[in-house]
Amino acid sequence: MSITANRLYRDSFNFLRNELFTIVLLTLFAALTTVMINYSLLPTQEQLNILETTKNQIDAHNIGIKQIISQMSPEQQMAILKISACEIFSILLGHVLLIGGMLSIMIEISNNRPVRFLKTLSIFLPVLPKLFLLVFICTLLIQFGLAAFIVPGIMIALSVSFSPIILINEKVGIFSAINRSSKMAFTHSRLIIPAMLLWGSSKLLLLLFLSINQINISSHNTMILIFNAVNYFLLAFLLVYLFRLYMLLRA
Asked: Is the Cβ–Cβ distance between 8 and 228 less than 8 Å?
């Protein structure tokens, strides 16, 4: 029986429906972790004022951020660097928790073992450092590709799409997982690219919706929590789709 996108979408929706409670718990856990890290590493009010001033200058004078940063003092540049580093770290950790948790859930179910939330977290904790490094490398490569031209970024995202699954399920090294993922993904790109574009489009629509309705959200952290929770749920669907495709290809 040939593998079709309709079959993969149907199987993915069925999986989400059957494991909805555990997946919602996981997405909320990952989103809360992101917000808590942001809050615990929250910069001082002076540093936040620097960031707000920088944003206002860019909006008012229509000049590049490089020009503004070059005119700042070393202390101001360090404040910008700290804010950016905290933001990147919290987002990466949230993605790693979501990816590791989702893959652990799917591996447990594929092995006919009962799924428990706390047990799921304990399963992927030993591979958390390696998974974090993999996600960091893949994110860096994708961002470089998107910054140069959009198409290379999409191609890189396609090539590494299976790498977390291969890393955890096959217990291989980081670069071995990326290499195997690239070979598998490009062979079946017609099934992967539409799902990735659907996920990216849904994320953009979510950003647009929140930007339009942000005046109705009293807390900045609440807005981050809502965005991350919904974004992680969309990512969970993409992971289910990719894992289902991976299992069918290995069968």
From this structure: no
Residue 11: CB atoms within 10 A of its CB come to: 17
- CA torsion sign for 228, 233, 234, 240 is positive
Burial per residue of 187-196, b for 16 or more beta-carbon CB atoms within 10 angstroms, e otherwise: ebeebbbebb
pLDDT digits 0-9 by tens, 111-162: 888 777 777 777 778 888 999 999 999 999 998 888 777 788 889 999 999 9
Q: Which two tokens stand for residue 169?
A: 């399920």
Sign, CA torsion 95/96/101/107: positive
Token duo for residue 113: 């073992």
62, 141, 199, 243 from 153: Cα distances, Å: 27, 8, 15, 22
Give tens-digit pLDDT for 12-49. Answer: 999 999 989 989 999 999 999 988 887 776 555 555 56
User: Measuring CA to CA, how many Å separate 167 from each of 67, 100, 127, 131?
Assistant: 41, 10, 9, 8
Are 72 and 58 spatial neighbours (Cβ–Cβ below 8 Å)? no
Residue 62: enclosing H or E segment and its boundaries? none
Tokens representing 47 are 């540093």
